[in-house]
Design brief:
The complex is a heterodimer of chains A (260) and B (208). Chain A is built from nine helices and nine strands. By secondary structure, chain A is α/β, with parallel strands linked by helices. In chain A, helix 3 crosses helix 4 and helix 4 crosses helix 5. The longest helix of chain A is centred in the last third of the chain and has 25 residues. The mean pLDDT of chain A is 89. Chain B is built from six helices and eight strands. In chain B, strands 2-1-3 form a three-stranded parallel beta sheet, sandwiched between helices. A three-stranded parallel beta sheet of chain B has the order 4-5-6, sandwiched between helices. The chains are: A alpha/beta (260), B alpha/beta (208). The interface between A and B is medium-sized, with 33 and 28 residues.
């Protein structure tokens, strides 16, 4: 049973020691990692994904439940407690959607035959462009690929730690994804440039020059701010659809109900 | 650690120059030309071990093109390593035959280019060919997971050069194409033959 993971410091891009003792993430915790492009956000979640033991460029180490993870957890996908959605929007495997998921289910030792159907159905909830079983994964659009990989991570990966790298990109229904994975008892980590996601998470890790600069806890004001941003977000969505349908802006359309 | 490196290729190779320039290690190359690269390796490897030894090398790396995939150049000693790019194709582990199934270690490169799911699909394919292979998922740009490979190499046993054998079985040595006959059609050939509509003899072989 996964209770927590602990990240121990490594070095920044200049080889200088990172300035924190350790960061512990507990089951059920939501985390965002923010910072400019090139600041080391992806490298940090990659360290978690690989359960780094000083053997990555950052030299960080990651413990599971306070202990050194055994090799089989690190190298056997069936035992790996981590799924990661990378920024890749392309699959290279010459396989159909169904075959791809079947092999991945074998890799993760999932016997449930319904899981393939359920994964494709779930993926179709994240994207407006329908994914069919017999599509080759190579022809899927960026949005379809990421929708499929997220559904795959949730149902086939089905791990207690989910790492998501910039899910706001590539045209998927990100709110659907967030709703689905919050309150599941998992550790959920978002690398993000999206203020809504950043403010909705309980812990915020700020990166700079390859190192963790600081770790912030969500406060009351931020929760309110997140709600307001969500309102704006919804409003933008409505306006987008109205404009796409050929309508004009009205006063009513412009109004936003802010919480205070 | 003092390293000697040999590249065996068919037509053209640059690795000897590149590795010598970047790491200052001892390098050589051999072109196999009309001979298959694995055959070339069998011919020259004894001398190569002497060359590495005479230059006080602790580690000898032999990189072979290993082109036809029928044989594989792995030996009964040392580490046999297959290097496979993450995007080399999902059926590649099955297609490469002995090159994967007789290897000790598979190094998957460029893992930053594919999703975790796709990487795990490729790993599953490799494991279905060779369940006990040691797998390394690497990204040399960031140096991820390379330490594990370094440790395996550092801890590998010293070789006994008087007892070096090919790990796999070489192919039949009775091929008329291999001995230079150019005529088209099975009538002109003996040994390993095949018509378009199936074999003319069991195991595609005639003339024993």
């Amino acid at each position: 049973m996964l209770q927590n993971i602990t990240i121990f410091p490594g070095v920044d891009k200049g080889g200088r020691q990172e300035n924190f003792d350790y960061i512990t993430l507990k089951a059920g915790e939501t985390v965002s990692i923010v910072g400019p492009t090139g600041s080391g956000k992806t490298a940090l979640i990659t360290d978690v994904e690989l359960l780094a033991q000083g053997d990555t460029a950052t030299r960080r180490r990651v413990l599971v439940n306070g202990e050194l993870p055994p090799d089989e957890i690190r190298y056997n996908p069936a035992l790996k407690p981590i799924v990661m959605i990378t920024q890749n929007t392309k699959c290279f495997a010459d396989l159909s959607v169904e075959e791809f998921l079947q092999i991945h289910a074998r890799a993760r030792k999932i016997d449930d035959r319904q899981v393939i159907r359920a994964t494709i159905d779930l993926a179709n909830k994240f994207t407006g462009e329908k994914i069919k079983d017999d599509y080759k994964v190579t022809i899927l659009s960026g949005g379809q690929t990421r929708s499929l990989l997220i559904a795959d991570a949730i149902l086939i990966g089905a791990a207690p730690i989910i790492l998501m790298d910039e899910i706001e990109n590539a045209g998927i229904f990100r709110q659907e994804v967030i709703n689905l994975i919050q309150n599941t008892g998992k550790i959920v980590v978002f690398v993000t440039h999206d203020p809504v996601i950043a403010l909705l998470t309980e812990t915020r890790v700020i990166m700079e020059n390859g190192a963790v600069k600081k770790v912030l806890r969500q406060n009351e004001l931020e929760i309110t701010a997140a709600k307001n941003l969500l309102e704006i977000d919804k409003k933008i969505g409505v306006i987008r659809e109205e404009l796409r349908a050929g309508k004009a802006i009205t006063n009513e359309l412009m109004a936003v109900n802010f919480a205070s | 650690m003092r390293i000697a490196f040999l590249k065996i290729d068919v037509v053209k190779a640059f690795e000897d120059l590149e590795l010598n320039k970047e790491f200052g290690i001892l390098t050589r190359k051999v072109y196999s030309g009309d001979l298959c690269p694995d055959h070339a390796e069998v011919m020259i490897l004894g001398d190569t071990v002497d060359w590495a030894e005479n230059n006080a090398a602790d580690l000898l790396i032999v990189e072979s093109a290993g082109l036809c995939l029928r044989c594989s150049p792995y030996l009964n000693q040392g580490l046999g390593i297959i290097v496979l790019s993450s995007i080399s194709g999902i059926h590649t582990p099955e297609k490469m035959g002995a090159m994967v199934s007789l290897a000790d270690v598979a190094v998957i490169t460029k893992i930053d280019l594919v999703s975790q799911a796709e990487r795990e699909v490729l790993i599953q394919k490799i494991k279905e060919v060779h369940p006990n292979i040691a797998l390394m998922e690497t990204n040399a740009l960031q140096g991820n997971s390379l330490n594990r490979l370094y440790d395996l190499i550092k801890n590998s046993a010293a070789i006994d050069k008087s007892n070096l054998f090919l790990k796999g079985n070489p192919p039949l040595g009775t091929c008329t194409i291999c001995v230079g006959k150019k005529e088209i059609g099975w009538q002109h050939h003996f040994g390993v033959i095949q018509k378009l509509d199936g074999p003319i003899a069991e195991y595609l072989y005639r003339g024993e």
